[in-house]
């Protein structure tokens, strides 16, 4: 359990600096990511290529997260945040130079760059997840996760629109260099942020035993373990549709790159609104209730999208459904992460989150293997129907399992009793 004592002076100013850095470094990275995906969509128009690109982006999370977790717990957190930014900048420079020289990008190099960017993110994600509870008081944890979600949603609002605009007027070789600017901003900000460290740097890392420790800790918490299994099924059923969003707009609805960007913006505006509710009002006594409600809304929104007519009228309704689903989306990820952070000591979070992130993602590549061929055969809209029904089924599973449905009630009671003992 996380202790309720907290010692960082000016913690709010410290975390605000951190969030500002995350905003500016994140937006440049996302503009580059969208530009690469739109480049692939425009050049190939292939669902299989897009699915393979998304698969490369997911593999490091699946394969490396359990190995990275022990390093997160025993390595300087600033180093783990800075080095991936530098690696991403170097990759951007190499890709830009090759593009300028050849006047085009070979597909294999684009795939390599997507893979390396994902590896960098695989290091940063559990690091950020594990340091947040050390940077803010325990009672502010849910709200702060909501505000971090708002930052990420704001990036997702601005990046598609900015990316679509820049993609139309700036050569892709120049756009990619935005990663360098983002790295400079990210590294500079991290140097000025205070991140509490646990004095375990000299403890020897034992990969297999550390992985076993993280898995055991997760399985011992039945509620979180069932949510993890549910997340695996959800990822398997939903990720194929999620990877083909640009194709849904540009192929099924006969839209443009700009309209693909508009859909991303609309969905992200919804996420920002949902994150704002969590960030400023996020003090639920039972966080599983809004989580289950969010799964119901997402399932209906995504499933209904697959039944829309493939024309511009259908596109407008698609935009409305995405706005509603976007509002619901942050509740699942944000509230679940807050519960996980409050369930384990900060010095163990890296190993536990490494296993959790890997298991939650492991079904994604399996689904993506079939995503492209399925979309080409039965239509990309059918994948949205499958994803929506899968979301509803996962929500029903969580509701019917008492260990999962009551997980936050039991957690809050435990935190309260431990606090009373200390007093």
TrEMBL record:
Compartments (UniProt record): Cell membrane
UniProt KW keywords: Cell membrane, Membrane, Transmembrane, Transmembrane helix, Transport
Membrane-topology descriptor: Multi-pass membrane protein
Pfam families: MFS_1 (PF07690), Sugar_tr (PF00083)
First-listed, main subcellular location of the protein, grouped into a coarse class: membrane
All copies of domain Major facilitator superfamily (MFS) profile, residue ranges: 14-405
Protein known as: MFS transporter
């Amino acid at each position: 359990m996380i202790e309720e004592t907290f010692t960082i002076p000016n913690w709010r100013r410290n975390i605000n600096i951190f969030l500002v850095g995350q905003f500016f470094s994140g937006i440049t990275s996302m503009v580059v990511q969208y530009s690469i995906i739109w480049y692939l969509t425009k050049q190939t128009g292939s669902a299989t290529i897009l699915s393979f690109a998304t698969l490369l982006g997911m593999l490091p999370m699946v394969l490396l997260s359990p190995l990275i977790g022990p390093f997160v717990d025993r390595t300087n957190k600033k180093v783990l945040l800075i080095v991936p930014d530098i690696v991403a900048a170097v990759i951007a420079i190499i890709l830009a130079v090759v593009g300028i020289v050849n006047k085009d990008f070979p597909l294999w190099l684009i795939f390599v760059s997507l893979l390396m960017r994902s590896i960098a993110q695989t290091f940063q994600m559990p690091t950020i997840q594990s340091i947040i509870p050390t940077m803010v008081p325990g009672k502010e944890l849910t709200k702060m996760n909501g505000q971090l979600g708002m930052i990420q949603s704001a990036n997702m609002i601005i990046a598609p629109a900015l990316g679509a605009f820049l993609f139309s007027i700036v050569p892709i070789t120049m756009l990619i260099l935005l990663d360098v600017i983002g790295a400079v901003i990210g590294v500079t900000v991290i140097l000025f942020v205070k991140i509490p460290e646990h004095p375990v740097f000299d403890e020897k890392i034992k990969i297999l035993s550390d992985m076993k420790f993280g898995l055991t800790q997760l399985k011992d918490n039945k509620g979180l373990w069932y949510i993890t299994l549910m997340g695996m099924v959800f990822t398997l059923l939903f990720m194929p549709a999620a990877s083909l969003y640009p194709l849904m707009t540009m192929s099924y609805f006969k839209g443009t790159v700009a309209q693909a960007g508009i859909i991303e913006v609309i969905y992200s505006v919804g996420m920002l609104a949902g994150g704002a509710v969590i960030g400023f009002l996020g003090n639920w006594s039972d966080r599983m209730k809004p989580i289950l409600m969010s799964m119901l809304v997402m399932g209906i929104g995504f499933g209904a999208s697959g039944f829309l007519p493939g024309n511009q009228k259908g596109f407008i309704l698609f935009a409305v459904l995405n706005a509603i689903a976007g509002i619901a989306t942050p509740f699942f990820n944000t509230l679940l992460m807050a519960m996980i952070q409050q369930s384990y000591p900060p010095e163990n979070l890296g190993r536990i989150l490494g296993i959790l992130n890997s298991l939650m993602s492991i079904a994604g590549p399996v689904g993506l293997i079939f995503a492209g061929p399925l979309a080409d055969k039965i239509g990309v809209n059918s994948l949205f129907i499958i994803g929506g029904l899968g979301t509803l089924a996962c929500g029903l599973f969580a509701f019917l399992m008492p260990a999962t449905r009551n997980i936050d009630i039991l957690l809050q009671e435990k935190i309260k009793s431990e606090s009373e003992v200390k007093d």
